[in-house]
Amino acid sequence: MKKYTFIFAGAGLSSLMTVYEMIQSGSFSEQKILLIDANSKITNDKTWSFWEKESGDFDAILAKKYETANFKSSRYSRKLDLQPYIYKTVRAVDFYKKMFELINQQPNIEFLEAQISNFSESEKGIVVETNLGVFHGEKLFNSLYNPNLVLSQTKFPLVQQHFIGWFIKSKESVFTPETATFMDFSIPQKDTTRFMYVLPTSSTEALLEYTLFSPTLLNKEEYEIGIKDYIKKLGISEYEIVEKEHGNIPMTCYPFWKDNTQNILNIGSAGGWTKASTGYTFKNTTKKSKEVVRFLQNHSDFRKFHRKDKFWFYDLLLIHILFHKNEIGSSIFSSMFRKVKASLIFKFLDEETSLGQDLKVIWQCPKMPFLNALFSRIFK
Where are the domains of the chain? Predict the structure, then answer.
């Protein structure tokens, strides 16, 4: 029976990033590692965006980068100078290709395209059951998100970032290639928090995503009607849809770490690695994967891998507001972006600010919703 030191249930962003950091560390070349996923990871199923101050590990595969960005609300618009940060975009297919080219060079790492039906832990380690057989290991990284964990309780509300995106080529030159649009709240809100997110790649090409932060999803037609209306608003009369994507990212402060065991660590969305207040995944996963590798070099009990800090609590308050009063989401983000420098907002979202800097950001937001959320959480 072949046994592995580490088995990854799922080979998405969090698993691949963790394996990447393992390889980079040079500390795991003697350990047998197995990644299992039902998807071969050869198509572009999503687009990730993130910000960095300097050059990074993934600059060679960037689809685009931006030094400025637009923010719009129903009352004002603002062009944001992102310096010293650069906003970067990576297509998933390019990321997968880079990761698997590296993995295929490692004799100690295997990838198996298979459907996982179950996994469990015993005194002898972990067991993963698939349609292609049963696999044994010492440690398991699970990135298979189980929504029932969050939906079966009410203490930690779930807001979803859900969207449909079209990458289009237009007849008219209406886009500014050097400038992204983070959030355009000028679209009809319909008592929810919804905005357009735009990533241009040329004056005639861009990814346009109709996005919501809300507890419930829409039917497909409503997203696509929203995109069509926005395209018309931009003054585009003729265009071609080159590619489509869709997504649903859980935004919650549910304590996923409580479901970790001695030998099973939940990672990615299954481990709460998504930044709860924004749904940003790539940057958080980069930081968390580095933390995992440092942890493995000194510890063996996965139950000790977690921390709860002030940023977790800030996120908890915002998610509480977006869940119970979703219609005021645009006013919260608009108030923050109106006066606060983009560089400070990025630093705040990276969870690298001091308490004084936190207050500079938070103080620009409407006060009463956060005070009400604070009292609600105290007595929850």
Answer: 3-62+91-152+253-304, 158-251, 310-378
Q: Which value, in Å, is the radius of gyration of the alpha carbons in the chain?
A: 21
Q: pLDDT (tens digit, 9 = 90+) per residue, 208-245?
A: 999 999 999 999 999 999 999 999 999 999 999 999 99
Q: What CATH number is given for 3-62+91-152+253-304 in this structure?
A: 3.50.50.60
Say if CB 59 and CB 51 are below 8 A apart.
no
Grouping H, G, I as helix, E, B as strand and the rest as coil, residue 153 is: coil
Element (H, E) at 79: strand 77-81
Q: Which of 306, 305, 312 is nearest to 377 (CA)?
A: 312
Residue at token pair 């919703």: 369
CA 167 vs CA 62, 91, 202, 229: distances in Å: 16, 12, 12, 15
Global pTM reads 0.93
Residue type, 373: A
Tokens of 354: 């001091």
User: Quick one: fold of 158-251?
Assistant: D-Amino Acid Oxidase; Chain A, domain 2 (3.30.9)
Amino acid at 220: K
